[in-house]
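Dear all,

This email documents one entry for the complex benchmark we are building for the journal club exercise. For each entry we list the sequence lines for every component of the assembly. Then comes the predicted three-dimensional structure of the complex as a token string, followed by one or two observations. Please use this as the template for your own entries, and keep the labels exactly as they appear.
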Amino acid sequence: MTSMTGAVKTHTEYLFFHNKKRREIVLLTPQLEQIVARSEVRDGFCFVSAMHITAAIYVNDLENGLIADIQEWLEELAPARPNYRHHQTGEDNADAHLKALLLHHEVTLPITDGRLDLGTWQQIFYAEFDGQRRKRVIVKIMGVS
Amino acid sequence: MTSMTGAVKTHTEYLFFHNKKRREIVLLTPQLEQIVARSEVRDGFCFVSAMHITAAIYVNDLENGLIADIQEWLEELAPARPNYRHHQTGEDNADAHLKALLLHHEVTLPITDGRLDLGTWQQIFYAEFDGQRRKRVIVKIMGVS
Amino acid sequence: MTSMTGAVKTHTEYLFFHNKKRREIVLLTPQLEQIVARSEVRDGFCFVSAMHITAAIYVNDLENGLIADIQEWLEELAPARPNYRHHQTGEDNADAHLKALLLHHEVTLPITDGRLDLGTWQQIFYAEFDGQRRKRVIVKIMGVS
């Protein structure tokens, strides 16, 4: 059990993506660890959120087989198909919205002793479902420095 | 990259709903923007959470075709049907619990420069799956003012 | 509408689990209420996150029929089966990863007046999908004391 008291500090950065493929999963953990170090927050939260509605942030395993399993599973549960109503607007990416809803677009990560306080196998990923354009992720840290 | 330091401020409000229909999706963004302004928090988080287990809060597109797609998709993945075990208690809303779990009941939104720091197309919605009764949503803001 | 201003306080504890069964759902609410009391935080957030990628934290009903419905539903949407690619590594738990993604591994809970500010029926659960080993959950509280 540990406690800290003091002034609160916030620290905000944005990550930019421009993936060549429509769907892609990008590891974020090393970049996030650097942002946490720059923030000088010793205890608090690191919030990571896609600023788009066709991309997700999730925490799971850095294992290529499982990453492929996750993508196939998303395709089963939220398949790309022509006949979504959203496509009457001229869009063709309704499945990307549903996949993003399923994985969720944001995570909160704990910071303890100035570092992300993650389990051994927890890695943070950006999941792009409608790439080939510029996308943004906000990282906002708040805590005691 | 921006940082702020100071005293922390919290601000809490509750939203009330009494939807006439069993299922309904309600846009929250304008109300949330007003609460953020009233909080006078310049940098921090705006947490929005349904206080019920048959309603969700989600972030996605304000486009009626997509909203209909999301509702049909939820019905496919978490269908209303008579034979849930939960219905042995006299309830008939097990599907509403499952739909709420799928979309998740809470979101955290970043606040930067005194405003919700959202992407162009990000809108916040309250998703009711078992309405026709009084429901509550908590909005709790924390940050530097 | 309530507001508070002051120094920020953080408080961190870890919960440990070693479930005998592979799948199990464990009620966390009483333990979390004790941690919130020990934290002496009067207004803020209580963040609860599994530190593993085959377990989830979720908020819903303490009703055994519904808990069984949730488990069956997870099995339908993320079935245990031999032919996941992840199993080529020697693992056999790909479905546990998918079930954890579906329910999400973390929740944020509001604290008001020194207590978890939950709706009448909201209970917090740890959902184990690959037990029979030691697992950890982090509880990190931040707010005004």
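Observations: The beta strands of chain A are 2-6, 8-17, 24-27, 43-50, 55-60, 106-112, 115-116, 123-128, 135-144. Chain A has a mean pLDDT of 97.
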